[in-house]
Amino acid sequence: GPGGRVEVGLEGAETTLAVTVSDDGAGIDPRVLDKVFDPFFTTKPVGEGSGLGLSIALGVVQHHGGSLSVGNRPEGGAEVVMRLPRGEARWAGEALGGHGA
Predict the structure, then answer these.
(1) CB contact at 8 A, 11 and 18
(2) Nearest Cα to 8, choosing from 83, 72, 25, 19?
(3) Which CATH number do you get for residue 38?
(4) Using H for helix, E for strand and C for coil, what is the string for the chain?
């Protein structure tokens, strides 16, 4: 709601990068936590959400060898953690097959 707080964190290890997004809201209803990555699952009214956002995000992250988790923080609020393996640094042109940059 209005006046809420969202925090974004970045943590790096030798082989992994983790991006954490958390808030101080009511959290996610524990009855639906195990469904949030299911395609077409939404808590919004009919016609107001496709329920594909987290499902697509999970697929993209897994395609790149990472993981995505969602949960509730003990102090309140929700937390999403995306972990991706570190790769070798490349120029944008290299990533695009040598066309660009």
Answers:
(1) yes
(2) 19
(3) 3.30.565.10
(4) CCCCCEEEEEEECCCEEEEEEEECCCCCCCCCHHHCCCCCCCCCCCCCCCCCHHHHHHHHHHHCCCEEEEEECCCCCEEEEEEEECCCCCCHHHHCCCCCC
pLDDT in tens, 60-98: 999 999 999 999 999 999 999 999 999 866 665 555 555
Residue 100 lies in a domain: no
Mean pLDDT of the chain: 87
Domain annotation covers residue 1:
no
Number of domains the chain is built from:
1
Structural domain containing residue 36: 6-95
Ranges 15-19, 32-36, 91-95: which has the least confidence: 91-95
